[in-house]
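ok here's the first one, seq then struct tokens
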Amino acid sequence: QAQLVESGGGLVQPGGSLRLACKASGITLQYYTIAWFRQVPGKSPEPYVCMQQRDGTTYCADSVKGRFTISRDNSNTMYLQMNNLKPEDSAIYYCAADTNPETITLGTPEYSGQGTQVTVSS
């Protein structure tokens, strides 16, 4: 059974950095489009924060371009490096994977994690 487990969330001051990690089991991430989503409780979910297709093509939301970077490595783990964090980045962050990038774009990935809280506050 496939499982995605996030880690790395926490409390950080504005302008600080965090790196989220998402370890996959039961699937091999190199064959999937991967993505990070975020959601503020009580608000509608946003489109993906960043996504990366199998060929390495990467897309990020305008609100995080130049600050967030998505990546993956050979340990079957994906990452989201977040720099220059702002209070509006506070949310629960979820990793996701799907063989079909269109499904990621629609916000209905086949696999997703349980989420990790990121709070940006002084």
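and now the second one, same deal
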Amino acid sequence: EVQLWETGGGSVQAGGSLRLSCKAPLYVYKNCGLGWYRQIKEGSERNMVASIGIRADGSTYYSDSVKGRFTVSKDNAENSLDLQMDGLKTEDTGVYFCRAICTVQSYWGQGTQVTVSS
């Protein structure tokens, strides 16, 4: 079974920064689209925050709510998908999940909590 390992969540005041990291198996890292999703509360929908496709140009996508504040990138040395979150707002609070979208199926990490206080 494919496992994705997320690290880097925590608590921060509004305006602060956090960096999330998702480590993936090499095959998944090289052949699947990778993204970060946010779930505001348990049972609610997981919405994409940022992602990187598998194209050579490393095209990225950001939701409007985080554009200009978050930066998604890949670390080839660590086979990880990183999310640098700056200028955090209280509405960024939630559980952040890493997702790998592969040809046959997709995989989810276990999630990491991000809490932003005012």
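notes on #2: The chain has a mean pLDDT of 94. The two ends are 39 Å apart (CA to CA).
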